[in-house]
Amino acid sequence: MTEVLPKRITKEIERLMNDPAPGIKAVPFEDNLRYFDVVMAGPTQSPFQGGEFKLELFLPGGYPMEPPKVRFLTKIYHPNIDKLGRICLDILKDKWSPALQIRTVLLSIQALLSAPNPDDPLDNNVAQHWKDNEKDAIATAAAWTSQYALPGK
């Protein structure tokens, strides 16, 4: 028996299906509509351009009063994303608001790819690399994108 979802989640799923955010595809699992497979295109003008990043998104029982859980499944070289794929983003933590939606969260993550913040890192080594030699860090991020995130990998 599948869980009956709150109307809000059903509406958000419908919107994601009928009006997907540019460069983001989020599809709920058939057997558990609280879990989503997400594929996010790397933003243009970023070292992640051309990449397709797989993420998982889960809506906990307390959603929308608590934020969704999101993590990268594709390896990525980014100061705000650690080796386990966890994401350092304020709206996934203390700045969460029930007014936000799945779509907003995914667009915010995509924006984070365009604008890494080494001053609020989750991976200190990557952040230090970004601060010490941004050009080299961006080259490393682009190389990882080619190695791990090209479509078909």
Automatic annotation (TrEMBL):
<protein>
    <recommendedName>
        <fullName>E2 ubiquitin-conjugating enzyme</fullName>
        <ecNumber>2.3.2.23</ecNumber>
    </recommendedName>
</protein>
<feature type="active site" description="Glycyl thioester intermediate">
    <location>
        <position position="88"/>
    </location>
</feature>
<dbReference type="InterPro" id="IPR023313">
    <property type="entry name" value="UBQ-conjugating_AS"/>
</dbReference>
<dbReference type="InterPro" id="IPR000608">
    <property type="entry name" value="UBC"/>
</dbReference>
<dbReference type="InterPro" id="IPR016135">
    <property type="entry name" value="UBQ-conjugating_enzyme/RWD"/>
</dbReference>
<dbReference type="GO" id="GO:0005524">
    <property type="term" value="F:ATP binding"/>
</dbReference>
<keyword id="KW-0547">Nucleotide-binding</keyword>
<dbReference type="GO" id="GO:0061631">
    <property type="term" value="F:ubiquitin conjugating enzyme activity"/>
</dbReference>
<dbReference type="Pfam" id="PF00179">
    <property type="entry name" value="UQ_con"/>
</dbReference>
<feature type="domain" description="UBC core">
    <location>
        <begin position="4"/>
        <end position="150"/>
    </location>
</feature>
<keyword id="KW-0067">ATP-binding</keyword>
<comment type="similarity">
    <text>Belongs to the ubiquitin-conjugating enzyme family.</text>
</comment>
<keyword id="KW-0833">Ubl conjugation pathway</keyword>
<keyword id="KW-0808">Transferase</keyword>
<keyword id="KW-0012">Acyltransferase</keyword>
